[in-house]
From TrEMBL, chain A:
<dbReference type="GO" id="GO:0005739">
    <property type="term" value="C:mitochondrion"/>
</dbReference>
<dbReference type="InterPro" id="IPR034595">
    <property type="entry name" value="NDUFAF8"/>
</dbReference>
<protein>
    <recommendedName>
        <fullName>CHCH domain-containing protein</fullName>
    </recommendedName>
</protein>
<dbReference type="GO" id="GO:0032981">
    <property type="term" value="P:mitochondrial respiratory chain complex I assembly"/>
</dbReference>
UniProtKB/TrEMBL annotation, chain B:
<dbReference type="GO" id="GO:0005739">
    <property type="term" value="C:mitochondrion"/>
</dbReference>
<dbReference type="Pfam" id="PF13489">
    <property type="entry name" value="Methyltransf_23"/>
</dbReference>
<dbReference type="GO" id="GO:0032259">
    <property type="term" value="P:methylation"/>
</dbReference>
<keyword id="KW-0808">Transferase</keyword>
<dbReference type="InterPro" id="IPR050602">
    <property type="entry name" value="Malonyl-ACP_OMT"/>
</dbReference>
<dbReference type="InterPro" id="IPR029063">
    <property type="entry name" value="SAM-dependent_MTases_sf"/>
</dbReference>
<keyword id="KW-0489">Methyltransferase</keyword>
<dbReference type="GO" id="GO:0032981">
    <property type="term" value="P:mitochondrial respiratory chain complex I assembly"/>
</dbReference>
<protein>
    <submittedName>
        <fullName>S-adenosyl-L-methionine-dependent methyltransferase</fullName>
    </submittedName>
</protein>
Length: 62, 336
């Protein structure tokens, strides 16, 4: 079994909470502002930046 | 029971779409339940739950599972506190859904001579088999949903259940079976997760799914609430009911550690018709939302575990009964 630091999920965890924490906060704040009436892609732009940072940190595309 | 009904509706819908795509009357699912025999109370995939628990209990030789005992141990402690209020010496107690023995290991010889541990996951049941308990222990590997298959009617003096009834499909039926298994004047003492449990995780995942994918699916189980519990206990035929609610908040560094711990507890999602994977964008979005919506000022995130404690007695002719209305001799005004 691989160690916790190397599993893809673990790396995603680090990427989303440490490496891209700034973009995550911007996205979270956007949801917070609209959470009583959330629609699909309500925070698309904010997530695009967050997602780009995640892909950069994970060094892969999905 | 609104939450339960809601989810049942969800599972019904998903089953219908299954029927449309599969025209032959064949069961191709590897899971043990067949779509043809799913009753109205089928909310959870019991087979998957047993597999999850078995796996959790054996990971790293049980070490991972022991690390995450904190919630169950804390609640077992509170349950024992309530148990101590019952001034009665028992010969035997049945620990229903015992796990490795969170409640059983706290029992003392002054409370009972022996304890029967019953759990549907064999590996969880035997995780701490080498540990010495203060009272004599017997372990039975059986399904909590079919209690009366292994436990004779009118045979138990007391039944305790600590955090296992939230995975039972037919909760009203399970309570009736518990009452049937008890001797007259026997007591049932239970702790089960209430509807507020993990509401932060539930809402974060829902918001993330709506915003990213445009729909929601069940990730956190429907759970009962305290009003339902008193109704259900009454309906099952228990008397002298006591129901109270408590909340435990645990702080985690982030949503990821919470999900890791839930998995190690064997508490992963087992709702019928659940999605087997979540898109990583959705997961990352949920983590960000969780932190912003519910996070603590210090950057950690809280998770709420709401616990409903219930006590009920099986009726017996010689049991003390509440006095009739208007029979009080002391005026409350004089005391207050």
């Amino acid at each position: 079994m691989s160690t916790p630091t190397t599993t893809p999920l673990r790396r995603l965890a680090v990427a989303s909470t440490v490496t891209c924490s700034q973009q995550a906060t911007v996205y979270g704040k956007c949801i917070l502002a609209t959470y009583t009436d959330v629609k699909k892609d309500a925070c698309k732009e904010e997530f695009a930046k967050f997602g780009a940072c995640l892909r950069e940190a994970m060094k892969r595309k999905w | 029971m609104f939450a339960r009904v809601g989810s049942r509706l969800l599972t019904r819908l998903s089953r219908r779409s299954q029927c449309q795509t599969r025209l032959l009357a064949s069961i191709s699912s590897s899971s043990s339940f067949s779509p043809t025999s799913v009753g109205p109370f089928q909310v959870f995939d019991r087979n998957a739950k047993v597999l999850q628990k078995d796996r959790a209990a054996t990971l790293s030789g049980g070490e991972r599972s022991r690390t995450v005992d904190y919630v169950r141990d804390e609640i077992a402690d509170m349950l024992i506190e309530r148990f101590l209020d019952i001034k009665k010496n028992f010969n035997s107690i049945l620990d229903l859904g015992s796990g490795p023995g969170h409640v059983s290991r706290l029992l003392e010889t002054s409370m009972t001579k022996r304890v029967i541990m019953l759990d549907s996951s064999q590996r969880t049941l035997k995780r701490d088999i080498d540990e010495q308990f203060e009272v004599e222990v017997e372990r039975i590997h059986a399904d909590e949903e079919n209690l009366l298959d292994v436990i004779p009617r009118n045979s138990q003096e007391a039944i305790v259940s600590c955090l296992s009834l939230h995975w039972v499909n037919d909760l009203p039926g399970a309570l009736v079976q518990i009452k049937e298994a008890l001797q007259p004047d026997g007591v049932f003492l239970g702790a089960l997760f209430g509807g507020e449990t993990l509401f932060e995780l539930r809402t974060a995942l829902q918001l993330a799914e709506v915003e990213r994918e445009g729909g929601i699916s069940p990730h956190v189980s429907p759970m009962t609430d305290s009003r339902d519990m008193s109704n259900l206990l009454g309906r099952a035929g228990f008397t002298l009911l006591t129901v109270d609610v408590d909340e435990i908040r645990v702080n985690y560094p982030s949503m990821w550690e919470l999900m890791d711990d839930l998995r190690d507890m064997g508490e992963s999602n087992a709702v019928v018709g659940r999605r087997h994977l979540i898109h990583r964008d959705t997961l990352a979005a949920a983590s960000a939302i969780y932190k912003e919506l519910h996070g603590n000022p210090d950057g950690t995130i809280p998770a709420t575990f709401q616990v409903i404690y219930v006590i009920g007695w099986k009726p017996a002719p010689n049991q003390p009964k509440p006095l009739g209305r208007g029979t009080g001799q002391t005026n409350l005004k004089d005391i207050l």
